[in-house]
Design brief:
This protein is mainly alpha-helical and 419 residues long. The protein has helices spanning 8-20, 29-38, 67-74, 106-110, 127-141, 164-175, 194-213, 224-228, 238-252, 303-313, 321-330, 336-345, 348-357, 364-368, 387-406, 409-413, and strands at residues 153-157, 180-183, 219-222, 274-278, 294-298. Helix 7 packs parallel to helix 9 (238-252), helix 10 packs across helix 11 and helix 12 (336-345) crosses helix 15 (387-406).
């Protein structure tokens, strides 16, 4: 025990400790000498080993940071598959029930982009709408070849239910574009700065689709005025300001997008066109919608566009174009979603009959959710669409619209409400 460099008080404590725990006496003096050398008591024998005399990986900068530290700080890892191979990193989150090469959120993160397999059928796309969207997308992809200022953002605005988002998705499907789609609900968060960072991450994700998959992509934000617009006395939040600033910065620097890391000269992002939809852009911060940053497109389908779209909608139901024209003329000044609601309303009677066929509403739970595997459900027969049935549904919907506008129960409940 003489080889242990301790003062007498510590030695006495160690002796008492050794008497209380006899197994501790198995360590010899040579063991403590080895521990002392490993802790750096002998500087000649405990020199730090380097990978190589010419290695730059351990070279220190002026702040004492090595190359690996600077590399990790400068470049954010965009490869989401790193660290998900079982036996390499994070074995806790990879198992046989998930697959050897996936973690818990792998499938979710892989589906940042949108595909349109659900859009089955032959839909009509208004030529004016298609020309505007296609021209904006192509113009941004060849912006480096043009000697003009190309706005990064296309703002499609107009009345409610006019098919702005749906027509855009049809164009994406026709062009083979794999977009990243956001909604106004993602533009607010309990954490300051999170929505702005999310927009930049989604923008870079679309850039990775172009770079890694060789597909065209874009970033689309639906109903942006609902998330950024100012209505009455609504309050501007920090996240609203950061989102506006992020979109303005993307418009001014579309190839330099940071999500928190330091810049590198090689960190250049592909230019990705942005498409936003809304109902009233006058509620949005004016510098964001100026002509240099956003190209505006007011979409109000004319009578011919509405007839063509509705005719394609009812084509499989055997409704002729003349009947569609009469239907549109009977309910003028209605949005496109009104004519889609007509078709849905005609299904009500058939659905009620189908409920009676399976035993009534009391047995719905057992029949729909807890039935046996070999027990089938009655076949649902879609109703035969006729002009008379569509007109009947249309008058019913129109009556409900007028009733809402004329019967304002809020004034009845709050007598002091302003007119």
């Amino acid at each position: 025990m003489a080889s242990i460099p301790c003062s007498p008080p510590h030695l006495s404590k160690f002796s008492l400790f050794k008497l209380s725990y006899p197994c501790f006496t198995k360590f010899s003096s040579s063991s403590f000498s080895s521990i002392r050398c490993a802790n750096g008591d002998n500087g000649d024998e405990a020199k730090k080993k380097r990978l190589s005399d010419q290695s730059s990986w351990e070279a220190k900068d002026a702040e004492g940071k090595d190359y690996l530290y600077r590399l990790g700080k400068e470049a954010d890892n965009m490869n989401i598959a790193v660290g998900q191979r079982a036996g390499i990193i994070d074995d806790l989150f990879a198992g046989n029930f998930l697959g050897k090469d996936s973690d818990i959120v792998f499938d979710y993160r892989q589906k940042a982009t949108r595909s349109f397999e659900y859009l089955q059928g032959d839909y009509y796309i208004a030529p004016l709408f298609m020309d505007k969207v296609v021209c904006h997308i192509v113009k941004n992809y060849i912006a480096h070849l043009l000697n003009v200022k190309v706005p990064l953002i296309l703002g499609i605005w107009g009345g409610k239910g006019q098919g702005k988002s749906f027509q855009t998705e049809l164009i994406f499907q026709a062009m083979g574009i794999e977009p990243v789609i956001m909604s106004a609900g993602e533009l607010e968060s309990e954490r300051a700065g999170e929505p702005g960072r999310l927009i930049r991450e989604r923008y870079r994700t679309a850039s990775q689709v172009v770079q890694n998959q060789g597909k065209m992509s874009c970033l689309m934000i639906n109903d942006i005025d609902a998330g950024l617009g100012r209505f009455g006395n609504t309050q501007m939040t920090v996240n609203n300001q950061i989102v506006v600033g992020t979109l303005m910065n993307l418009s001014d620097n579309p190839t330099r997008v940071s999500i928190g890391q330091d810049w590198r000269e090689s960190d250049v992002t592909n230019r990705i066109p942005i498409i936003v939809t809304g109902n009233d852009f006058s509620t949005i911060y004016a510098p964001l919608i100026r002509d240099g940053r956003m190209e505006k497109f007011y979409w109000q389908p004319n009578h011919e566009d509405i007839v063509n779209i509705v005719n394609r909608m009812y084509e499989r139901d055997g409704i002729s174009r003349e009947e569609v024209t009469k239907l549109v003329d009977t309910f003028p000044n209605q949005a496109l979603d009104f004519y889609g609601a007509l078709r849905s309303r005609t299904y009500d009677r058939s659905i009620l009959k189908w409920i009676d066929d399976i035993g009534g509403m009391e047995s719905l739970g057992n029949k729909l959710l807890r039935r046996r595997k070999d027990e089938g459900l009655p076949v649902f027969t879609p109703p035969q669409q006729t002009l008379e049935a569509l007109l009947e549904s249309g008058y019913s919907l129109l009556e409900e619209q007028l009733l809402i506008m004329e019967t304002k129960l809020s004034k009845e409940y709050m007598k002091n409400i302003d007119e």
